[in-house]
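Side project, low priority. Logging it here so it doesn't get lost.
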Amino acid sequence: MEIERKYLICKDKLPVNYSEYPCLIIEQAYLCREPVVRVRKQNNEYYLTYKSKGLMEREEYNLPLTEESYNHLLKKADGAIIKKKRYLIPLKPYTIELDVFQGKHEGLILAEVEFRSREEAEEFNPPVWFGEDVTFSSKYHNSTLSQ
């Protein structure tokens, strides 16, 4: 079960040192949107992911892929390929996953924080540099952005 909150981030409110944190280079594409089935390249690792319906809470399963399988499935993608840099910023006891989008969505910045329980997610107080809470808007799901 994935439980996460998602926030819009204004570029001028980003921490000045965000690019000093560990960074993942992500490329992903969607094979299906209901249910969500995607392929992802994350640095030099490859995955096939299934996600159930939901906004703050949903089932998620990741299966490893080979580079060859990833490239084969990528050709079957429905919609645009999403490209982003994901910075991993510690916020004890959590990690902020700061997604800085590239390509078609250049300028879009989202922050996600994952939780162990719904209660924890509901009690979360975001840092002052976080913008609008878009957790309950499917508009900011990557599967929607790929359209």
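Brief comment: The beta strands are 2-8, 23-33, 36-42, 45-51, 57-58, 60-65, 82-91, 94-102, 109-114.
Revisit when time allows.
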